[in-house]
Amino acid sequence: MANPKEKTPMCLVNELARFNRIQPQYKLLNERGPAHAKMFTVQLTLGEQTWEAEGSSIKKAQHAAASKALNETTLPKPTPRPPKNNVNNNPGSITPTVELNGLAMKRGEPAIYRPLDPKPVPNYRANYNFRGMYNQRYHCPVPKIFYVQLTVGNSEFFGEGKTRQAARHNAAMKALQALQNEPIPEKLPQNGETGKESEEDKDANKSEISVVFEIALKRNIPVSFEVIKESGPPHMKSFVTRVTVGEFTAEGEGNSKKLSKKRAAMAVLQELKKLPPLPVIEKPKLYFKKRPKTILKTGPEYGQGMNPISRLAQIQQAKKEKEPEYVLLSERGMPRRREFVMQV
């Protein structure tokens, strides 16, 4: 169907039958024709009324019978539900994060999201007494709120929401309001600067633990994380993790092993960044004779039925240009109806 959100005739018949407390019955009456062009006849019974319809498949015949039934039935129909309001109030259901990605690309400044630790919850242990403990523990749940930091160029924005995605949308909306009226920067930085910035951006998207392992791998030094202390009651544990990278050591504390490991990595990174840069070793170029291509398959007639991804890669190879790069910008929608936005 053209619109995936539009209900099929069979779905509408089911709603009608439920409203009237009856069961719809579909019955295959006949099939005729050769194997490659069969025609099916289906009968639909709703209460005391029946309809027949034909189709090139059983499903199509069922839908055709359902459409007839909807047009001709005398049964009372349920009142249609009003359409849901668009959550983001954006035309075309474009989420703020997708809109911001488009604006950030125009400006040449990537939008980088960093999850922030949740704000500290007040310590209720001091208020506990045995008389009110039941009420405090079981009737006062603290809703979890997610916080996100968004960086676009030199600007920073903070968002919060009930889910991580909602927090990203909140931060993106704030960024859109601030950046929409600002002029797009004209001058791009020099080649030397872009290299440094791109490395920093790449590191910003990685976790601190990954960056520690990468630095250690480049410098050929061992890395180890070890939980050295565990304290506190079962519901409020505190962990201390020690990280050792060669001759450097650091400790981090948190209410989970993962958080303490992350904080230890953040602490040791401060020391590792002080190390002198590694010397750049130029790899010797390998000289070999390329076999000349006898046929360049770049003609418009060639590859009509081919996968477009393979076809585009083939055209680029024939032109001796870089292969296409694909980047996932965003995803949205329900789990069974995901929609993805890709950039090539």
From TrEMBL:
Bias (Basic and acidic residues): 194-205
Looking up SMART domains in the UniProt record yields:
DSRM (SM00358)
| Alphabetical list of InterPro entries matching this protein | DRBM-containing_protein (IPR051740), dsRBD_dom (IPR014720), STAU2_DSRM_1 (IPR044476), STAU2_DSRM_2 (IPR044464), STAU2_DSRM_3 (IPR044473)
Annotated GO biological processes are:
anterograde dendritic transport of messenger ribonucleoprotein complex; germ cell development; intracellular mRNA localization; protein localization to synapse
Where are the annotated segments for Disordered? 68-94, 179-205
**Gene3D superfamilies (alphabetical):** 3.30.160.20
Q: Which residues form the signal peptide?
A: none
Name of this chain's protein:
Double-stranded RNA-binding protein Staufen homolog 2
What organism does this protein naturally occur in?
Cephalopterus ornatus
